[in-house]
Amino acid sequence: MKKLIHLLVTVRRTILFFFLWPLMFRIGSIKPIDEKLILFAYNRNYKTIPDNMRGLYEYLSAKGYDCRKMQSPAQPLKRFIFDLKFQLSYARCKCVFVTDNFDPLYAHKPNRGTRVIQLWHACGAFKKWGYSTLDLAWGGDRRDMTRFPMHNTYTDVFVSAESVIPCYAEAFGCDRSIIRAFGTPRTDVFFDSGFVASGREKLLSLFPEIGGRKIILYAPTFRGNSPDDAYNDRALDIGLLRERLGSEYALVLKLHPFTAAKYGMTDEEKRLYGDFAFDASGKLGADEAICAADILIADYSSIIFEYSLLEKPMLFFAYDLEEYERDRSFYYDYKSFIPGRLVLTTEETADAVENGDFKLNRVKPFKKVFMDACDGGCVKRIADYAVE
Q1: Any idea where the domains of the chain sit in the sequence?
Q2: Do 190 and 168 contact (CB within 8 A), yes or no?
Q3: pTM over 0.85, yes/no
Q4: Dist. CA 193–CA 196, nearest whole Å
Q5: CATH number of 192-370: 3.40.50.12580, 3.40.630.190, 3.30.70.20, 3.30.390.50?
Q6: I need a surface site. Which of 1, 207, 283, 312 has the fewest CB within 10 A?
Q7: Do domains 2-184+375-387 and 192-370 have the same CATH topology?
Q8: Three-class secondary structure assignment of the chain
Q9: Considering the domain 2-184+375-387 in this protein, what is its CATH number?
């Protein structure tokens, strides 16, 4: 049955990738490039336009460009129709921005005069993705990736620092010459003192019970080998943290969007620990949560790059490091890479917080290496380059 399903999926992809999508693109190419048309293309897992696109959309719209949000629908028939219509716009646009994989872009090269810009949804380079993972449990099938290539039509890739260019070249299978350290657009807000100051206020408007306590933000990435089977372990003992830290701190959970709906706090946990732990998943943006936090507990999430801009302490609760490194792998040696203390148990986590043992001296050097192109002017720099 699995072989039959894979065969049917392959046949469907072949028809789309090699026949229907190129045909619609050629039809769209009959008309000349529209110098004002800018596309912002993103997948169905986003609730609204991705934060890495929002500033560019607003900036270019204000300059008079015809900016169009193009979100791929979840329903298969609607997605089929959308993909065909997308080709017509793709053929005529001045520029198309993406922040993730976007399959309809990869069936053919863009027309001359069109820029295809990959912003990517994460800063820095941490856990591997794309072509870097083909031989890992997380990675795609090598035959499928050869038959249906990805990341093969970009004219430009923008990253947060020069140091990560080799990682992106490997992940996208592209030449380093198209990768530019122009920064990551969504980081501009962290250079706005008013926005940073408003983070705690916004969090307290959701959870006034926090009061004057310091905020520990727990923001783990998901586990599992694909978005469809994503899950979160409940490895952090909220009860123990409440007992040890509850009088001085409050714990705020910000789960990955793949797992937030299923793996948030249970009703029983809310009843037992509701005066200490608060689930902000889906209620507060990651940028606002970062600004509100006094301490971050992370694992393998790229949130650490944005958080480093504020030079605040981090702990790395990597209880499953050996397993995660085997299945997903990293671009750098994890233990020497992380800008904070490694903790493997809840007890160690509580000890580190109580003793202020965060290895904070690692944060500034980390920021300089991985975020040096993020300076508050990324949106303007990227937008102007894209259209000029």
Answers
A1: 2-184+375-387, 192-370
A2: no
A3: yes
A4: 5
A5: 3.40.50.12580
A6: 1
A7: yes
A8: CHHHHHHHHHHHHHHHHHHHHHHHHHHHCCCCCEEEEEEEEECCCCCCCCHHHHHHHHHHHHCCCEEEEEECCCCHHHHHHHHHHHHHHHCCEEEEEECCCCHHHCCCCCCCCCEEEECCCCCCCCECCHHHHCCCCCCCCHHHHHHCCCCCCCCEEECCCHHHHHHHHHHHCCCHHHEECCCCHHHHHHHCHHHHHHHHHHHHHHCHHHCCCEEEEECCCCECCCHHHCECCCCCCHHHHHHHHCCCEEEEECCCCCCHHHHCCCHHHHHHHCCCEEECCCCCCHHHHHHHCCEEEECCCCHHHHHHCCCCCEEEECCCHHHHHHHCCECCCHHHHCCCEEECCHHHHHHHHHHCCCCHHHHHHHHHHHCCCCCCCHHHHHHHHHHC
A9: 3.40.50.11820
Under 8 Å between Cβ of 295 and 245: no
Maximum separation of any 2 CA atoms in the chain, in Å: 68
* Side chain identity at residue 329, one-letter code: S
- Residue found under tokens 């397993």: 323
Residue 233 amino acid letter = D
Plot region of 75 (φ>0 → left; ψ -120 to 50 → alpha; else → beta): beta
